[in-house]
Design goal:
Largest sheet of chain A: 7 strands, mixed
Order of helices and strands of chain A: HHHEHEHEHEHEHHEHEHEEHHEHHEH
Structural class of chain A: alpha/beta
Main location (chain A): periplasm
CATH superfamily of the largest domain in chain A: Periplasmic binding protein-like II
CATH architecture of the domain at 53-246 in chain B: Orthogonal Bundle
Protein name (chain A): ABC transporter substrate-binding protein
Helix content of chain B: over 70%
Oligomer: heterodimer
Number of domains of chain A: 3
CATH topology of the largest domain in chain A: D-Maltodextrin-Binding Protein, domain 2
Strand content of chain B: under 5%
Order of helices and strands of chain B: HHHHHHHHHHHHHH
Family (chain A): Belongs to the bacterial solute-binding protein 1 family.
Number of strands of chain B: 0
Number of helices of chain B: 14
CATH class of the domain at 53-246 in chain B: Mainly Alpha
Organism (chain A): Vreelandella sedimenti
Largest interface: A-B, 29 and 27 residues
Helix content of chain A: 40-55%
Number of helices of chain A: 16
Keywords (chain A): Periplasm, Signal, Transport
Shape of chain B: globular
Radius of gyration of chain A: 24 Å
Largest sheet of chain B: none
């Protein structure tokens, strides 16, 4: 097939624009110089840069915090607008997006086992590690489909007015003689089975695969002392603020706020806590296309934004390079620091990817009244 | 055009928007749910087999039915007393009863649920009053359990039982009661043998309405149940969003609809619906 040079130029231009290598203004200018505007208009290029990248997180304070830590600076640097949707990227919600055939979400702040499960089924985009620098996070916090944006932890928190000594281990958590009072644990199971097994004497290195039956039996033992299973961070916080529980398994982010708001009445630490990464992942066929999404993820792995998030919400940076830059007063709070990581155990994402749904059903039928 | 149609057709035309809306917004999506229940994760009736055999689902269903029945009975009892009180009291008292019914009716269920949490929790209003009065030593477990869910649901449902009951009580002819008195029946006898039987259709209707309404409750059990009062609606949510078993969630929806349809059929069969709202 014969082509004029001009046609070839236009084709190159269209190709470049499709890949996002030039922006719309340059494209139109060049196409105009080639007197090919009508052709260019028909080229059917979706201008990804004009379409915001939709980032989906879990709502609440996190919407403003993500904006401050990540999305504003991203838009400043790249010109790509971002919109944050706080509706909660659970596995079912992501699947519903994809099943509709026209997902409206781009990047999700999902559970790591969610991105792994969905990725293995071919529903998520494999991350583009040419754009995303994999070296920015620890090997263990990145998979082919998800890379940690931050770390958080399920810690033991307690009301200091109820007992003098601090509960250190999960055996202490189960010890209602030494540490009397009501308990609260996470409603959706993460870290709860692990806590029960550790309390029952299982060693950390033997935790996985979890012995579910044994864990559930151990939870039954504590049943009369569990006031509530909290379903939202705010709920766990309220239980402590109102003095309804004396000890609980709660997120470190809420524990930090509680300690501050109660002026130290609520204590907590990272000993024997369960640390887990979040997971940036990209939906297959996402509307904004691969490149802006991958660029956003790479941007969100920069230490500055992650430290900002630590300041705002208490989530630990996933990029080890952040540790050296953290302001002194926040060092202790960082669940991702080398020291603090050594005091915690890691949630096994692989195990959750394989077992979450079926075991959660069992768990809920046992915790039910 | 329209004016040329026979008159009865003109009226039928006016009735059409509602069925069409129901078809578009309810019947068609529900057909999708039914399809999911037999195709996800694979074609067959596996989901229904699981509904029949899975003890954890039975626990949820049993808890739901049991709770709805308790709420139904309690709401009925309260509504009956209030309706009776309204019927036979001065207009001043009637205003009070109306206020008690209408005021909560217009407050969002979410606000009321948190209100109950504040009132009923361990160091909440009720427990601290009781403790201050020296009636109890340690706080009663009034919420974050099934009891809390029942209290809040009964409170929510009383108006829904009140109106059908009131309308059936108002249809009772006073002269019949007077005649019974005239024939020598005691007040109690008149109530039990003459008044109460005539309110039975209203009672049944109100109970079924409350029961059906309760089956779908989500917010109240989720907030006041302490994370351990999983009811059918939250279970469906869980299967849809948390664990991704759309098939089983859909099958449970279908089962609930069958149950509700059966109850509504009963309602139509044994009481005249138009009299409950008249």
């Amino acid at each position: 097939m014969h082509r004029t040079h001009q046609q070839d130029c236009i084709e190159l231009l269209v190709e470049k624009a499709r890949r996002g290598q030039i922006d719309r203004r340059s494209f139109l200018k060049a196409a105009g110089m080639l007197a090919a505007l009508p052709l260019a208009m028909r080229s059917g290029i979706g201008w990804a840069q004009d379409r915001p990248v939709i980032i989906v997180n879990w709502g609440g304070d996190a919407i403003d915090a993500y904006r401050q830590a990540w999305t504003d600076s991203f838009t400043r640097e790249t010109g790509i607008p971002v919109r944050i949707d706080g509706s909660g990227p659970t596995e079912g919600a992501i699947r519903a997006q994809l099943a509709s055939g026209r997902p409206s979400w781009d990047v999700v702040d999902a559970e790591p086992f969610t991105s792994l499960t969905l990725g293995r089924e071919g529903l998520m985009r494999p991350l583009d590690f040419n754009t995303i620098e994999r070296s920015k996070v620890n090997e263990e916090f990145a998979t082919e489909f998800g890379v940690a944006g931050y770390l958080y932890s399920y810690v033991i928190a307690w009301d200091k007015e109820r007992f003098d000594s601090a509960p250190q281990t999960w055996a202490d958590f189960w010890d209602v003689e030494r540490f009397p009072g009501k308990r609260t644990m996470y409603k959706w199971m993460n870290g709860v089975l692990e806590a029960a097994l550790l309390a029952d004497g299982v060693a950390v290195e033997d935790l996985y695969p979890l012995d579910v039956a044994r864990a559930l039996d151990k939870i039954d033992e504590l049943r009369p002392h569990i006031l509530a299973y909290w379903g939202s961070g705010a709920e766990s916080q309220q239980l402590f603020l109102d003095g309804e529980v004396s000890i609980g398994q709660i997120w470190n982010t809420r524990a930090i706020v509680l300690e501050r708001d109660t002026e130290g009445r609520v204590g907590w630490h990272y000993d024997n806590a369960c640390v887990t990464p979040s997971s940036w992942a990209v939906l297959g066929d996402n509307p904004a296309g691969s490149e802006p999404a991958m660029r956003f993820i790479n941007h969100a792995l920069e230490p500055e934004g992650q430290i900002e998030l630590l300041k705002l919400l208490g989530n630990g940076p996933s990029n080890p390079a952040a540790e050296a830059l953290i302001p002194e007063e926040l060092i202790e709070l960082n669940c991702g620091s080398v020291d603090n990581l050594a005091r915690q155990f890691k949630l096994d994402i692989e195990w959750y990817a394989d077992h979450y749904g079926s075991v959660l059903d069992q768990f809920l039928s046992r915790t039910g009244a | 055009m329209i004016t040329r149609l026979p008159e009865r057709w003109q009226y039928r035309l006016l009735l059409w928007p509602l069925p069409i809306l129901l078809l578009l917004c309810y019947v068609i999506p529900f057909a999708g749910i039914v399809t999911w229940s037999v195709t996800l994760p694979e074609l067959g009736v596996d989901n229904y087999a699981r509904l029949a055999n899975d003890p954890s689902i039975h626990a949820v269903l049993w808890r739901t039915l049991h709770l709805c029945a308790i709420v139904g009975v309690c709401a009925l009892l309260l509504a009956f007393l209030m309706a009776y009180c309204w019927l036979y009291s001065s207009s001043r008292w009637q205003r009070w009863v109306e206020l008690c019914i209408f005021l909560p009716f217009f407050i969002s269920v979410l606000v009321r649920t948190f209100g109950w949490l504040v009132a009923l929790r361990n160091n909440g209003l009720v427990n601290s009053w009781l403790q201050d009065l020296g009636l109890i030593d340690s706080p009663l477990a009034l919420t974050r359990n099934t009891l809390g869910v029942i209290i809040a649901m009964v409170h929510f449902m009383v108006p829904f039982a009140f109106f059908p009951l009131l309308s059936s009580m108002r249809q009772i002819d006073d002269r019949v009661l007077l005649a019974a008195r005239g024939l020598g029946a005691s007040r109690l006898r008149v109530f039990i043998s003459v008044f109460l039987p005539q309110t039975l259709p209203g009672l049944l209707g109100a109970f079924i309405m409350v029961f059906v309404f309760c089956l779908g409750f989500f917010i109240i059990p989720a907030i006041l149940g302490g994370g351990s009062t999983l009811m059918a609606a939250e279970y469906v949510f869980l299967q849809m969003f948390q664990t991704y078993n759309w098939g089983i969630g859909a099958a449970l929806c279908v089962l609930m609809l069958v149950l509700v349809s059966g109850l509504v059929w009963l309602l139509m069969r044994f009481s005249r619906v138009e009299r409950l709202v008249g």
